[in-house]
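Fill in residues.
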């Protein structure tokens, strides 16, 4: 279905924040939430996977969310990204 987000990648280094987002989506039928803890891991998973959406933390241990966004725009320009701060 166009405009639907069934497979979401959450790039977040905080275990607490990742848990909060996971709980928020747990009762959403048909939504699969995957997690990456670093920008490097997130970019690799987003490029290799068939994600519909990326939820991206701005402050990551290895790069900023803006750096991740620029890499994703270059490698997966069709992939929607929401930066969360």
């Amino acid at each position: 279905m166009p405009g639907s987000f069934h497979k979401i990648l959450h790039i977040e280094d905080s275990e607490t924040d990742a848990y909060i987002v996971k709980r928020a989506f747990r009762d959403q039928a048909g939504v699969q939430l995957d997690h990456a803890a670093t920008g490097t891991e997130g970019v690799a998973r987003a490029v290799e996977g068939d994600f519909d959406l990326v939820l991206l933390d701005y402050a990551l241990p290895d790069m900023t969310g803006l750096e991740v966004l620029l890499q994703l725009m270059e490698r997966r320009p069709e992939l929607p990204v929401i930066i969360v701060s």
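The mean pLDDT is 94.
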